Amino acid sequence: MNYLYLLLNLGSLSIPFLFSFHPKLKFYSLWKSLFIAIFITMLVFIPWDVIFTINGYWGFNDTYFLGTKMFGLPLEEWLFFICIPYACVFNHYALLHYFPNMKLNADITKRISYFIILVFFFITILNYDKWYTFINFLLATALTAIVISINKELLSKFYITFLVMLIPFFIVNGILTGSFIENEVVWYNNNENLSFRLFTIPIEDSIYAFSLILMNLSILEYLEKRKA
């Protein structure tokens, strides 16, 4: 099964990529901004990934990889930061295309954002000695604070679309963390996280996904507004 992680990446990408050319969606028109956003986001997440892998905060089961590595990360891990954001950003825009009124009002968006910022920051300072928890919640806190100040409209939609995206997230990330297979694809050092799991998925992974997708979306929308 050394191709499992590759199949998860390509499987996640395949349908969103094919439907990118749908005449009503025309998602391909966002490609330039999207791939710039993906590249910039990788500049944040890849060094994080490399440092955590080197220090043993998490790691990879070679059984599920083809064997090619760059800076200690399997090639499939690099593809993860392309395929998953592409699929999630596509899902965000596809949902909004078919359900254009699917958003929260400004007041509720503010309340949710301030609540998230407070809770995430509280978890951050209480877990300064757990590196995955600390960095993960710190980034999510800062990112939410930035986006609520510059693009509240995005958050009013993202809070809903993210809940929908959690469905495929639990499937794909569940497999990566050991659901439905003999061993996990990605293992975690529980000394560096809260040791609380949703099925086999560390709770931090859901916040990781939150930041990964939101960062891509916010950069994409900033670039698109500059073009307008």
Walk me through the topology.
Elements: H1 4-19, H2 31-54, E1 58-60, E2 69-70, E3 73-74, H3 75-98, H4 106-126, H5 131-150, H6 152-176, E4 186-188, E5 197-198, E6 201-202, H7 203-227
Antiparallel strand pairs: 1-4, 2-3, 5-6
Helix pairs in contact: 1-3, 2-3, 2-7, 3-6, 3-7, 4-5, 4-6, 5-6, 5-7, 6-7
Low-confidence stretches: none
Query: Oligomeric state of the chains?
Result: single chain
- Strand line-up in the sheet with most strands: 1-4
Overall average pLDDT: 96
Q: What is the rounded distance between the termini?
A: 46 Å
Q: How many H/I helices?
A: 7
Helix content: 55-70%
- Element-by-element helix/strand order: HHEEEHHHHEEEH
> How would you sum up the major sheet?
2 strands, antiparallel
Proportion of residues in extended strands: 5-15%
Structure class: mainly alpha
Specify Rg, calculated over alpha carbons: 17 Å
Task: Tally the beta strands.
Answer: 6
Shape: globular
